[in-house]
């Protein structure tokens, strides 16, 4: 009993510290989180779930890329890194255009328009902030665990859970504005605002 309590206590505090750090670093505004908010506002929760599911799946894939050391290998190849970064910027600019030109919520429902899983997956995989933020959190937290294997498992589990929670919270935050999208004028202003925020969240860290 005492051993079980000791192990549980030893896992609790590193896990909480890791969750807090990931909320602050990974949950801050960036291309993926801003797009989840923008899509939630433009299309509502139900129609946005496939897209946000793609964001979550892609970000989990980024977590695995970081955890297995593939990200470190990519950083050692400047030319490949530059190509990937340019491709990610172009794709995010395209997504910002799609958000800026999205129709009012009622019109998008009538036309059956909805963001796709593959669009969210591609943005998550092309999101430079995700790699940097996850690497910063993954490599520097969850200290004090009884073994290196346990350390890695706790990091993967906690960050996986936080990836899901962070994207869903941003989605619901955006969907709280969806009633404003019934008006074409309001929808256009908010779509343009979110598109600008998405572009800013992508380009400002590169300046």
What does this 3D model show about the protein?
With 207 residues, this protein is mainly α. It has one domain (46-206). Helices cover 80% and strands 0% of the residues. The protein is built from 9 helices and no strands. The model is unreliable at 1-7 (pLDDT under 50).
What's the helix count?
A: 9
Task: Classify the secondary structure makeup into a structural class.
Answer: mainly alpha
Oligomer: single chain
Separation of the first and last Cα atoms: 55 Å
> How do the SSEs run, as a string of H and E?
HHHHHHHHH
Please state the overall shape, judged from the principal axes of the Cα atoms. Answer: globular
Radius of gyration: 19 Å
Q: How many domains make up the 3D coordinates?
A: 1
Number of strands: 0
């Amino acid at each position: 009993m005492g051993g079980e309590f000791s192990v549980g206590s030893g896992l609790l505090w590193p896990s909480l510290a890791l969750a807090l750090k990931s909320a602050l670093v990974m949950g801050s505004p960036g291309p993926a989180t801003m797009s989840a908010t923008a899509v939630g506002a433009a299309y509502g929760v139900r129609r946005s779930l496939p897209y946000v599911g793609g964001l979550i799946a892609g970000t989990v894939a980024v977590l695995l890329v970081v955890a297995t050391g593939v990200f470190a290998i990519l950083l050692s190849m400047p030319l490949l890194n530059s190509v990937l970064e340019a491709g990610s910027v172009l794709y995010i600019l395209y997504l910002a255009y799609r958000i800026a030109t999205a129709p009012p919520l009622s019109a998008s429902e009538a036309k059956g328009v909805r963001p796709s899983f593959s669009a969210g997956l591609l943005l998550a995989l092309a999101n430079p902030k995700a790699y940097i933020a996850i690497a910063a959190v993954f490599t520097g937290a969850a200290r004090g665990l009884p073994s290196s294997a346990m350390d890695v498992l706790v990091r993967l589990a906690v960050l996986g859970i936080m990836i899901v929670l962070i994207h869903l919270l941003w989605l619901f935050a955006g969907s709280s504005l969806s009633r404003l999208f019934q008006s074409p004028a309001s929808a256009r202003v908010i779509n343009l605002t979110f598109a600008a925020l998405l572009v800013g969240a992508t380009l400002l860290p590169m300046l």
